[in-house]
Amino acid sequence: MINSDYLCIMKAGKFHFKQFSVGHGHGSMKVGVDGVMVGAWSSASGKRILDAGTGCGLIALMLAQRNHAAEILGIDIDSASVDEAQCNFKDSPWSDRLQVRQESYVDFSPEGYGFDLIVSNPPYFDSGVTDLTTTRIAARHQGEFSPYVLLERSPKLLADGGRVAMIVPSEFFDKLRDWGISLGLVLVRAMFVRNHPEASVKRVLMEFSKDVDEGCHVSVKREEVPMLTMFQDEGIPTDDYRNLCGDFYLKF
User: Fold this and answer.
1) Which of 35, 54, 58, 227 is most buried, judging by how many CB atoms fall within 10 Å of its CB?
2) Where does the source fall among the domains of life (predicted)?
3) pTM: predicted TM-score of the whole model, two decimal places
């Protein structure tokens, strides 16, 4: 994917967006195009939102800009990331609605409520997972945060009808779609992403909903998923890309 400094202005160690700035020099997750895309694309409705693996807090800040009523919690297992996100939240216009905690998503258990939305740019691996049996083993026993673990724990963390959104490599699409179905999560939206018209597809945005109607809804199929092309052959951002991220990038 293209380096995000093409689209943001960096000054004094921070990336500057239209309504906020992000320091990202110390934590585990830097500002990147993938995080911006899932922060701009995911549904932003609801009163309680969780940014899982928040890193520097980029996605949480984007959702705070998009949803003026939501209380947003970022969690991360890395202490440096938590400190950095805390500083970024404090310096933002939405500091009263943003919180961060040092928590492992694997063990995280909120008290008394479910989230309306969980969003993440999860770390990913693909250690030969080919079917639901091995997917289930990987999700339950490998202990690391991954797209599979993100889905595995979502039904327990989401309110009825709540959603979980992520961006992952495109080759994960079929396995995650099937894994979600097995967990009672319906794939309600998705979008493939490529750099330019002749490029291969590299990423897919996926959003699942907690199915409270016991199988009455059908997950989106691969052939139904639209394509977003980021740049024209000349390196100029496409209208679709501008429309998606135009509220954030200074040069859009």
Assistant:
1) 54
2) Bacteria
3) 0.88
